[in-house]
Amino acid sequence: MKNELLPSVKKWLPIYCVSLLLMVSSSAGASADPAYYKAPAKNGDGVLSLMRRYQLADFSCNIERFYELNRLSRNAALLVGKEYLLPILIYEFNGQSIRSTIGVDNWEMALAIQRYNEEMLNSGHRNQSYQDDRQLWVPHHALYCAAETVPVPPPSGSLVAEPANRTFPIFGNEYAYVPLLSSQLSGQVFYISAGHGGPDPGAIGHRDGKRLCEDEYAYDVALRLCRQLLAHGATAYMIIRDKNDGIRNEQFLVCDEDEVQWGDQPIDISQRVRLTERSDIINDLYRKHQALGARRQVAIMIHVDSRSVSEQTDLFFYHQENSELSQRMAQRMQQTMASKYARYQANRGYHGTVSTRNLHMLRECLPTSVYIELANIRNTYDQRRIIQTRNRQLLADWLFEGLLEQ
């Protein structure tokens, strides 16, 4: 760590006294009335993607403060190029110490603020160190946010799970019992979000006089994947939920509108509202698990695409922009899928791709996230990938394998 809290004495201070630099008296007093830092929204930015850029999104109090400072409603969109106040207080550094600049005696807080400023400099968000330009950045959460250690509800939500016998009613009577096959994913948390639901069935296909609704097939694969994760020790959440539709083995899944969101919240007919609510649910749970020390947190969004009837597709994987972890995870899942096709359909080939895409659920979700399109719901060949029960189970199994850390 750079020793930068007392630059005026750096030249003569012995190396063994480095730790004392953070323990200077705060008697000089704090700077009065610090301003808030402003930053422009970039193309595709939502509130969380903007906040994530400045390492603020992990604290819900920062998010609330952002809305307050900018007088925005929870579902407000950001305007490209417009500057918004961020929950970063700018103090005039007094040249002595961080603690005396802001008027606190907390050594660990001063150290955290120093590290934050160094990270902002290293990431290019600051042009100079706070010692050089005398502008000390203090994130709102460092001063005003209490530790976020709210207890996390069980993954089954309102459909109560019984940990003692590992029964999860959301999977339906036949599949409710989930044996613990391993503890490989212990300490890891997964958020499985099947696309659409409620008043929005998503893409529609037709086969043998039947309607194929995207939300039903995405939900069935999502349930199967969630069950696999639980079986190997993970904590797994189904964000979209249907108390009547567990894992189903029919080819033609009945289209209905009784799905709800986590916590029995209704699914709004407005796409913007429901996506914002969905990402908020995931992010609230993410922060709670982060405070509890989760080893890894991942969000998986499962959809079925709709293209020209004649266009046959493979699975497509989309990752978060500028997230190496998200890109690696998407690539690993795609490679797993390609290897399975090479083994079981050697003459067919596999052409599923990995790319980034400007989607709300990738921009606004805090966990490492991947968005998956399973098939073209309008193509006769692709339909077999989702209507055949064995194929839906294989999709879930192979996606699960791709999620395992290597």
Describe the overall structure.
The protein is an alpha/beta fold and 406 residues long. Helix content is 33%, strand content 17%. The chain contains 12 helices and 13 strands. The strands form 4 sheets. It has a 6-stranded mixed beta sheet, sandwiched between helices. Helix 7 crosses helix 12, helix 9 packs across helix 12 and helix 11 crosses helix 12. The chain is elongated, with a radius of gyration of 25 Å.
Give Rg in angstroms. Answer: 25 Å
Q: Which strand-content bin applies to the residues?
A: 15-25%
Oligomer: single chain
Number of helices: 12
Helix content: 25-40%
Please provide the ordered H/E string of secondary-structure elements. Answer: EHHEHHHEHEEEHEEEHEEHEHEHH
- Average pLDDT works out at 86
Structural class: alpha/beta
Give the secondary structure arrangement, pairings included.
Elements: E1 35-40, H1 47-53, H2 60-70, E2 83-92, H3 98-102, H4 107-122, H5 130-133, E3 135-139, H6 140-144, E4 188-194, E5 204-207, E6 210-213, H7 214-231, E7 235-238, E8 240-241, E9 260-261, H8 271-291, E10 296-305, E11 316-319, H9 324-344, E12 354-356, H10 360-363, E13 368-376, H11 380-387, H12 389-403
Parallel strand pairs: 4-7, 4-10, 10-13, 11-12
Antiparallel strand pairs: 1-2, 2-3, 5-6, 8-9, 11-13
Helix pairs in contact: 7-12, 9-12, 11-12
